[in-house]
Design goal:
- The N and C termini lie far apart (53 Å).
- The protein contains seven helices and six strands.
- The longest helix has 13 residues, at 137-149.
- It has a single domain (2-149), classed as 3-Layer(aba) Sandwich (Rossmann fold).
- α1 (13-20) links the parallel β1 and β2.
- It is elongated and about 60 Å long.
- By secondary structure, the chain is of the alpha/beta class.
């Protein structure tokens, strides 16, 4: 299994050991994460687009934000998500995740401690879902702006 992991683990040997023991999992990470674990690869050193990695991953481990949720929705990439604290749009993003994607919730304390196995097993047992959502928002906005400007 391959997971894109975007931050959020304690910088402790216990958390890192837990992740390193997941022998059948490959984690792709982005800076500022610079981990020297056998099952972690930095995307920054690879000639791959971020969106392509999201599309190819078996899942993403993240705190919900606009960009990552949008990319996952566009490609049907499953998400393991956690609470991100006071973020006004959190409930809307989680509702979209729950409605359209295979997903699992991971408590923040499990995320930071590297206790990811339960959420990963839960996600692995779910079928990947490809949302049937319009992906042409940029075109729709451009047309509306042009209509506005031409009046």
């Amino acid at each position: 299994m391959s997971f894109l992991w975007l931050r959020g683990v304690e910088r402790s040997s216990t958390a890192f050991r837990r992740l390193e023991q997941m022998k059948n999992v490959l984690f792709a990470v982005k800076e500022p994460l610079q981990l020297k674990l056998p099952n972690v690869r930095s995307m920054d050193a690879l000639d791959l687009s971020y969106v392509d990695v999201v599309a190819a991953a078996d899942g993403v481990i993240t705190k919900p934000g606009y960009g990552i949720v949008s990319d996952c929705l566009a490609h049907g990439t499953p998400i393991i998500y956690t609470d991100r604290g006071p973020f006004r749009e959190y409930d809307i993003l989680v509702a979209a995740i729950q409605e359209h994607l295979a997903h699992a919730f991971m408590p923040p304390e499990d995320l930071y401690a590297g206790r990811w196995e339960k959420a990963m097993r839960e996600l692995e047992g779910l079928p990947r879902r490809l949302p049937h959502l319009a992906l042409d928002g940029g075109t729709v906005c451009a047309r509306r702006i042009l209509r506005f400007l031409s009046t």
